[in-house]
Specification:
By secondary structure, the chain is α/β, with parallel strands linked by helices. It has 12 helices and 10 strands. It starts with a strand and ends with a helix. The structure holds ligand 9D3.
């Protein structure tokens, strides 16, 4: 899979891609990410990417021309992207399901805004979709672009070393994760739950399911609506909900 990220801060994007799982995937050619400097697609001596807003008001607006030129260069060099994502606070919220949809594509371009805004003709005429990563104000689209690349890349076979760890990932099954422990079995008098050191694999599996379900029920009950639960998990969840009801009526 290939991403082309258009930004005025290509080094910010490259710095993040130089570490960790993404860096390894890029080295091994499982993933290609190219950060493209928007200023390279300007024509004037000052490499101007922004201008004052028509109608007045504060701040600067990204000009359309360099962004259109950047996408045209991508088309010519590597072929037309299957999605041209504008990262913007106005976009549809990015979720694991959205990550899965983008992971099915071969070539994705991401356009990052900065300043107060971006000429709306980019959204209307160039972008194929608009994505936000959540309800908070950031200074630009670079971090959101990296969030999207990270979440999507993890779903590409061979990017994460252990495929089982991706399949078991919290949101891929729609549940929060169970608690993890490592040695020592006792740390400052806090013990690891007995069941985990017992070696009873059946009991461990069931304990983890219960913990994951209980945590999800308490913290993120909204996730249970779409969670894919096996028969055992459905049974445990029914028990947990009964126990909760009992507690609420003061009879536990
Ligand atoms: C001061 C201008 N803002 C009015 C409240 C509008 C604004 C424009 C550009 C706010 C933030 C940004 C920069 N953010 C993004 O480009 C962005 C973003 C975000 O801020 N939050 C969540 N997801 C995203 S995706 C892109």
């Amino acid at each position: 899979m290939r991403f082309d990220i258009v930004t005025i801060f290509p080094r910010m994007v490259e710095a993040a891609l130089g570490e960790g799982i993404l860096a390894r995937a890029i080295q091994r050619n499982v993933l290609t990410v190219r950060a493209r400097d928007l200023r390279e697609f300007t024509e004037d001596r000052h490499r101007t990417v922004d201008d004052v807003p028509y109608g007045g008001g504060p701040g600067m607006v990204l000009k359309p021309e360099p962004l259109f030129k950047a996408v045209e260069a991508i088309r010519e060099e590597v072929g037309a992207p299957q999605a041209i994502v504008l990262v913007s606070p106005h976009g549809r919220r990015f979720t694991q399901a959205e990550a899965g949809r983008l992971a099915s594509l071969d070539r994705v371009a991401i356009l990052c805004g900065r300043y107060e805004g971006i000429d709306d003709r980019v959204r209307e005429q160039l972008a194929t979709e608009e994505i936000s990563i959540g309800d908070y104000v950031l200074s630009g689209g670079e971090l959101p672009a990296l969030v999207i690349v990270d979440a999507v890349a993890r779903l590409i076979p061979g990017v994460v070393g252990d495929e089982d760890s991706v399949a078991g990932d919290s949101f891929s099954r729609g549940l929060l994760d169970y608690p993890h422990y490592t040695r020592p079995a006792e740390f400052r008098e806090w013990k690891v739950p007995d069941v985990l050191v017992s070696g009873h694999h059946g009991e461990i599996r069931r304990w983890r399911k219960r913990q994951a379900l209980e945590l999800t029920l308490v913290r993120r009950p909204d996730l249970l609506v779409d969670a894919e639960l096996d028969v055992e998990e459905q049974e445990i969840l029914r028990e947990l909900m009964e126990a909760k009801k009992g507690a609420a009526h003061g009879r536990d």
